[in-house]
Amino acid sequence: MNLHIFQNQQELNEAGAGIITSLVQMQPKAVLGLATGGTPVGIYEELVKAYNKGRVSFKGVTTFNLDEYVGLPADHSESYRTYMQQHLFNHIDLPAAQAHIPNGNAVDLEAECAHYNELLEEAKQIDLQILGLGHNGHIGFNEPDDSLVSGTHRVELKEETREANARYFNTIDEVPTHALTMGVGTILKAKTILLIVRGADKAEIVHRALTGPITTEIPATLLQTHPHLVVLLDAEAGRLFE
Ligand SMILES: N[C@@H]1[C@@H](O)[C@H](O)[C@@H](COP(=O)(O)O)O[C@@H]1O
Predict the structure, then answer these.
(1) Which of 156, 162, 223 is nearest to 195 (CA)?
(2) Are 128 and 29 spatial neighbours (Cβ–Cβ below 8 Å)?
(3) What is the pTM of this model?
(4) CA-CA distances (angstroms) from residue 53 to 15, 22, 46, 48, 85?
(5) Alpha helices in the chain (DSSP H)
(6) 144: domain CATH number?
(7) Which amino acid residue places its CA nearest to atom 3 of ligand 1?
(8) pLDDT tens-digit readout, 101-137
(9) For the Glucosamine/galactosamine-6-phosphate isomerase domain, which residue ranges apply (predicted)?
(10) Mutate which of 64, 78, 133 to test ligand 1's pocket (most atoms within 8 Å of Cβ)?
């Protein structure tokens, strides 16, 4: 594991974006696994800046998002599709056909998951998977459970996850109860994983995830088994590693 702790958010954002731009410069056809949530926003901002300065092009890149809510129209302000458009896709030259996000509005969600898995198979391997961390140790929307699923699947969100994400909705009742998520098998198959964690409220869970016993009750503990894990923490989240 390659762990870095940053004293300010800007340095963390630049480091995260730097890892992604270096990869794409070296490998213009790179396959990127993308995350949503508050954590990667600053990194996407830096990527857009690098693109605007002509340092990187995403024309040949393929992306796969980790997850999407079930039942929100794609153009809903809180769908992950909208998030990606607003924070990244609208501002760079990534061709729309190369940007994949599970369709949480598909009539047949099982078929949608199978289709997403096929696309991932065709892409062979994600070169760099960006990950945030849920307060309960979830990655993507792989929630704590007594077993975990390898491929893309439908999940019921834990109450604590709905509560954590309620800040983006008017009321908690509007937060979807289910989501589609890439499975932990797909995540762990990525060549490199870039885990980003910020904030004092995640200090304990990130410490347990990276140093505690491996358990499906904290899905992020499985990251300990990955041979190329890069971790970027802000000082608050990294408190217990100092
Ligand atoms: N499904 C997403 C995850 O992909 C994200 O990494 C995590 C943390 O979110 P945030 O970065 O907003 O704290 O929870 C969300 O529910």
Answers:
(1) 223
(2) no
(3) 0.97
(4) 17, 14, 11, 9, 20
(5) 9-26, 41-52, 80-87, 109-123, 159-165, 184-189, 203-211
(6) 3.40.50.1360
(7) 140
(8) 999 999 999 999 999 999 999 999 999 999 999 999 9
(9) 12-226
(10) 133
Only one residue has tokens 């599970």, namely 102
Report d(CA 224, CA 188) in Å as an integer: 10
Please check whether residue 158 is in contact with residue 175, taking contact to mean a CB–CB distance below 8 angstroms: no
What is the complex's ipTM, to 2 decimals?
0.95
| Residue type (1 letter), 22 | S
Count Cα atoms within 13 angstroms, Cβ side, for 190.
Answer: 29
Ligand 1: does its nearest atom lie under 6 Å from the Cβ of 35? yes
Strand-pair category, 229-234 with 2-6: parallel
pLDDT in tens, 47-86: 999 999 999 999 999 999 999 999 998 889 999 999 999 9
In one letter, which amino acid is 126? Answer: I
For residue 67, what are the CA distances in angstroms to 41, 81, 126, 234? 16, 10, 15, 24
194 occurs within a structural domain: no
Q: How many residues does the chain have?
A: 242
Provide the number of structural domains found in the chain.
Answer: 1
Asked whether 80 lines ligand 1 (CB < 6 A), one says no
- Tokens at residue 133, please? 């961390």
- Is 127 catalytic? The answer is no
Alpha-carbon torsion, ordered 62, 41, 173, 114, to 10 deg: 10
Question: Is position 198 within any domain?
Answer: no
Active site residue 76: no
Structure tokens at 151: 């491929």
Whether 67 is a known active-site residue: answer yes
